[in-house]
Write a structure and sequence with these properties.
Blueprint lengths: L1 H24 L6 H26 L1 H20 L4 H5 L8
């Protein structure tokens, strides 16, 4: 439980505070709202899915899978060179 609280705290405080600087460095100011919109959409869609999977496969295994997915996704996003490459695979190009 402490790991999940730590991840939520890091996600909420550090990423939200650093996002304007990250967007400025990646030259994607017009995509700033998309970052938060996609994050909220993904959270809303996956919460019930993770709940059902946790009932089927056990909470501990799904929790570990979720943490692993979060860390891998954070690392992939951290390697992005532009804002378009950060969301290129999942979403069409936004002008």
């Amino acid at each position: 439980m402490l790991v999940s609280i730590l991840l939520v705290t890091i996600d909420t405080t550090i990423v939200t505070t650093a996002m304007p600087h990250i967007v400025q460095q990646l030259s994607g100011l017009n995509l700033l709202s998309w970052v938060f919109a996609i994050y909220l959409l993904t959270s809303s869609v996956t919460a019930p899915i993770y709940g059902k999977l946790a009932d089927l496969f056990g909470r501990k295994s799904i929790f570990i899978f979720g943490i692993t997915l979060f860390v891998v996704g954070s690392m992939v996003s951290g390697m992005a060179q532009t804002m378009y490459t950060m969301n290129q695979k999942a979403w069409p190009k936004v002008d």
